[in-house]
Write a structure and sequence with these properties.
With 199 residues, the protein is an alpha+beta fold. The chain has helices spanning 2-5, 7-17, 33-43, 111-133, 141-162, 170-176, 187-191, and strands at 20-26, 45-47, 55-58, 82-86, 92-99, 102-104, 192-198. It has a 3-stranded antiparallel beta sheet, with no helix packed on it. Strands 1-7 form a two-stranded antiparallel ribbon. It starts with a helix and ends with a strand.
Length: 199
Protein backbone atom coordinates (compact mmCIF):
# COMPACT_ATOMS: atom_id res chain seq x y z
CA UNK A 1 0.00 0.00 0.00
CA UNK A 2 2.89 2.32 0.76
CA UNK A 3 4.07 2.07 -2.85
CA UNK A 4 0.67 3.29 -4.07
CA UNK A 5 0.79 6.14 -1.54
CA UNK A 6 4.00 7.35 -3.24
CA UNK A 7 2.40 7.62 -6.70
CA UNK A 8 1.28 11.28 -6.31
CA UNK A 9 4.78 12.21 -5.06
CA UNK A 10 6.43 10.45 -8.01
CA UNK A 11 4.08 12.10 -10.50
CA UNK A 12 4.76 15.51 -8.96
CA UNK A 13 8.54 15.01 -9.10
CA UNK A 14 8.40 13.73 -12.68
CA UNK A 15 6.42 16.82 -13.67
CA UNK A 16 8.92 19.00 -11.80
CA UNK A 17 11.79 17.35 -13.67
CA UNK A 18 10.37 18.51 -17.00
CA UNK A 19 10.43 22.13 -15.72
CA UNK A 20 14.05 22.14 -14.56
CA UNK A 21 17.07 23.08 -16.63
CA UNK A 22 20.70 22.47 -15.73
CA UNK A 23 23.20 25.14 -16.72
CA UNK A 24 26.93 24.54 -16.36
CA UNK A 25 29.81 26.84 -17.24
CA UNK A 26 31.36 30.18 -16.36
CA UNK A 27 28.64 32.54 -15.19
CA UNK A 28 28.66 36.30 -14.78
CA UNK A 29 27.58 39.35 -16.62
CA UNK A 30 28.15 39.34 -20.37
CA UNK A 31 31.71 40.37 -21.05
CA UNK A 32 32.93 39.61 -17.53
CA UNK A 33 36.67 39.01 -17.14
CA UNK A 34 36.36 35.29 -16.34
CA UNK A 35 33.98 34.73 -19.26
CA UNK A 36 36.52 36.43 -21.52
CA UNK A 37 39.35 34.22 -20.19
CA UNK A 38 37.19 31.10 -20.55
CA UNK A 39 36.13 31.99 -24.10
CA UNK A 40 39.70 32.83 -25.20
CA UNK A 41 40.88 29.42 -24.03
CA UNK A 42 37.83 27.44 -25.14
CA UNK A 43 37.92 28.75 -28.73
CA UNK A 44 41.37 30.33 -29.05
CA UNK A 45 41.90 34.05 -29.61
CA UNK A 46 44.21 36.69 -31.01
CA UNK A 47 44.73 39.57 -28.62
CA UNK A 48 45.81 42.96 -29.90
CA UNK A 49 46.28 46.22 -28.00
CA UNK A 50 43.18 48.38 -27.61
CA UNK A 51 45.11 51.53 -26.75
CA UNK A 52 48.56 52.17 -28.10
CA UNK A 53 50.80 49.99 -30.22
CA UNK A 54 51.95 47.33 -27.77
CA UNK A 55 50.69 44.66 -25.41
CA UNK A 56 52.72 44.47 -22.21
CA UNK A 57 53.39 40.87 -21.19
CA UNK A 58 54.84 40.49 -17.70
CA UNK A 59 58.12 38.65 -17.24
CA UNK A 60 58.91 36.55 -14.17
CA UNK A 61 60.56 39.70 -12.72
CA UNK A 62 57.35 41.76 -12.71
CA UNK A 63 55.40 41.79 -9.45
CA UNK A 64 52.36 39.52 -9.78
CA UNK A 65 49.36 41.51 -10.99
CA UNK A 66 51.39 44.69 -11.59
CA UNK A 67 50.72 46.87 -14.60
CA UNK A 68 53.47 48.79 -16.40
CA UNK A 69 52.25 52.09 -14.93
CA UNK A 70 52.69 50.65 -11.42
CA UNK A 71 56.46 50.20 -11.70
CA UNK A 72 58.63 53.19 -10.95
CA UNK A 73 61.62 53.80 -13.21
CA UNK A 74 60.30 51.63 -16.02
CA UNK A 75 61.60 52.52 -19.49
CA UNK A 76 61.98 51.06 -22.97
CA UNK A 77 65.64 50.53 -23.92
CA UNK A 78 66.53 51.68 -27.42
CA UNK A 79 65.79 49.10 -30.15
CA UNK A 80 64.43 46.55 -27.67
CA UNK A 81 60.87 45.30 -27.34
CA UNK A 82 60.92 45.25 -23.56
CA UNK A 83 60.16 47.54 -20.67
CA UNK A 84 62.83 47.34 -18.00
CA UNK A 85 64.25 48.94 -14.88
CA UNK A 86 67.90 49.51 -14.09
CA UNK A 87 69.57 46.91 -11.90
CA UNK A 88 71.74 49.69 -10.39
CA UNK A 89 74.92 48.17 -11.89
CA UNK A 90 74.56 49.29 -15.49
CA UNK A 91 72.34 46.37 -16.46
CA UNK A 92 68.63 45.89 -17.04
CA UNK A 93 65.90 43.89 -15.36
CA UNK A 94 63.22 43.15 -17.96
CA UNK A 95 59.74 43.60 -16.50
CA UNK A 96 57.53 43.37 -19.60
CA UNK A 97 57.86 42.08 -23.13
CA UNK A 98 56.22 44.23 -25.79
CA UNK A 99 54.17 42.47 -28.46
CA UNK A 100 51.93 43.63 -31.29
CA UNK A 101 49.71 40.56 -30.93
CA UNK A 102 49.40 37.44 -28.78
CA UNK A 103 47.82 34.23 -30.02
CA UNK A 104 46.06 32.01 -27.47
CA UNK A 105 45.59 28.53 -28.94
CA UNK A 106 42.31 26.68 -28.51
CA UNK A 107 42.29 24.60 -25.33
CA UNK A 108 38.70 23.45 -25.08
CA UNK A 109 37.72 22.41 -21.58
CA UNK A 110 33.91 22.71 -21.74
CA UNK A 111 33.00 21.36 -25.20
CA UNK A 112 35.63 18.62 -25.02
CA UNK A 113 34.48 17.56 -21.55
CA UNK A 114 30.92 17.34 -22.86
CA UNK A 115 31.98 15.27 -25.87
CA UNK A 116 34.00 12.88 -23.70
CA UNK A 117 31.39 12.39 -20.95
CA UNK A 118 27.90 12.94 -22.37
CA UNK A 119 27.13 9.21 -22.67
CA UNK A 120 28.04 8.62 -19.01
CA UNK A 121 25.98 11.61 -17.90
CA UNK A 122 22.93 10.45 -19.87
CA UNK A 123 23.26 6.95 -18.40
CA UNK A 124 23.49 8.43 -14.89
CA UNK A 125 20.43 10.63 -15.53
CA UNK A 126 18.40 7.68 -16.85
CA UNK A 127 19.34 5.59 -13.79
CA UNK A 128 18.28 8.41 -11.47
CA UNK A 129 14.95 8.93 -13.26
CA UNK A 130 14.26 5.18 -13.02
CA UNK A 131 14.97 5.32 -9.28
CA UNK A 132 12.61 8.28 -9.00
CA UNK A 133 9.95 6.38 -10.95
CA UNK A 134 10.35 3.38 -8.64
CA UNK A 135 9.37 5.64 -5.77
CA UNK A 136 12.73 6.04 -4.00
CA UNK A 137 11.76 8.55 -1.32
CA UNK A 138 15.28 10.01 -1.14
CA UNK A 139 15.27 11.19 -4.75
CA UNK A 140 13.67 14.41 -5.99
CA UNK A 141 13.79 16.10 -9.38
CA UNK A 142 15.94 18.91 -8.01
CA UNK A 143 18.36 16.49 -6.31
CA UNK A 144 18.78 14.62 -9.60
CA UNK A 145 19.66 17.82 -11.45
CA UNK A 146 21.97 19.08 -8.69
CA UNK A 147 23.77 15.73 -8.54
CA UNK A 148 24.23 15.74 -12.32
CA UNK A 149 25.42 19.36 -12.19
CA UNK A 150 27.97 18.44 -9.54
CA UNK A 151 29.27 15.58 -11.71
CA UNK A 152 29.61 17.81 -14.77
CA UNK A 153 31.31 20.56 -12.76
CA UNK A 154 33.85 18.06 -11.37
CA UNK A 155 34.52 16.69 -14.87
CA UNK A 156 35.23 20.18 -16.23
CA UNK A 157 37.58 20.96 -13.34
CA UNK A 158 39.43 17.67 -13.93
CA UNK A 159 39.73 18.55 -17.62
CA UNK A 160 41.18 21.99 -16.80
CA UNK A 161 43.79 20.33 -14.58
CA UNK A 162 44.65 17.64 -17.14
CA UNK A 163 45.22 19.80 -20.22
CA UNK A 164 48.89 19.96 -21.16
CA UNK A 165 48.71 20.80 -24.84
CA UNK A 166 49.15 23.14 -26.57
CA UNK A 167 51.85 23.98 -24.07
CA UNK A 168 52.38 27.46 -22.66
CA UNK A 169 55.02 29.61 -24.33
CA UNK A 170 58.44 29.66 -22.61
CA UNK A 171 57.70 33.24 -21.47
CA UNK A 172 54.47 32.13 -19.77
CA UNK A 173 56.14 29.08 -18.20
CA UNK A 174 58.87 31.30 -16.74
CA UNK A 175 56.31 33.72 -15.29
CA UNK A 176 53.95 31.04 -13.93
CA UNK A 177 56.62 28.59 -12.85
CA UNK A 178 54.70 25.71 -14.43
CA UNK A 179 53.35 24.41 -17.72
CA UNK A 180 49.74 23.87 -16.75
CA UNK A 181 48.12 25.95 -19.51
CA UNK A 182 44.75 26.57 -17.83
CA UNK A 183 45.95 26.81 -14.23
CA UNK A 184 47.63 29.83 -12.71
CA UNK A 185 45.67 31.67 -10.03
CA UNK A 186 42.89 29.07 -9.69
CA UNK A 187 40.25 31.65 -10.66
CA UNK A 188 39.14 29.72 -13.76
CA UNK A 189 38.58 26.55 -11.75
CA UNK A 190 36.73 28.52 -9.07
CA UNK A 191 34.51 30.07 -11.75
CA UNK A 192 33.17 26.72 -13.03
CA UNK A 193 29.66 26.51 -11.63
CA UNK A 194 26.31 24.88 -12.20
CA UNK A 195 22.81 26.02 -11.45
CA UNK A 196 19.40 24.43 -11.66
CA UNK A 197 16.75 26.83 -12.95
CA UNK A 198 13.01 26.61 -13.45
CA UNK A 199 11.86 26.93 -17.06
Amino acid sequence: MEDFDRIPDVEREMAELSHLQLQVGIFGEDGSFMQMIASANEYGADIEPKNGKWLTIPTENAPKGAKARDIEGLFRPKDKNILAVSDGKGGLIPMFYLAKKVHIPERSFIRSTFDENVDDWVEYLVDQVIELGMGDSGITARKIMESLGNRIQRSIVQKIRSIESPANSPITIARKGSNSPLEDTGHLIDAVRYKVVNV
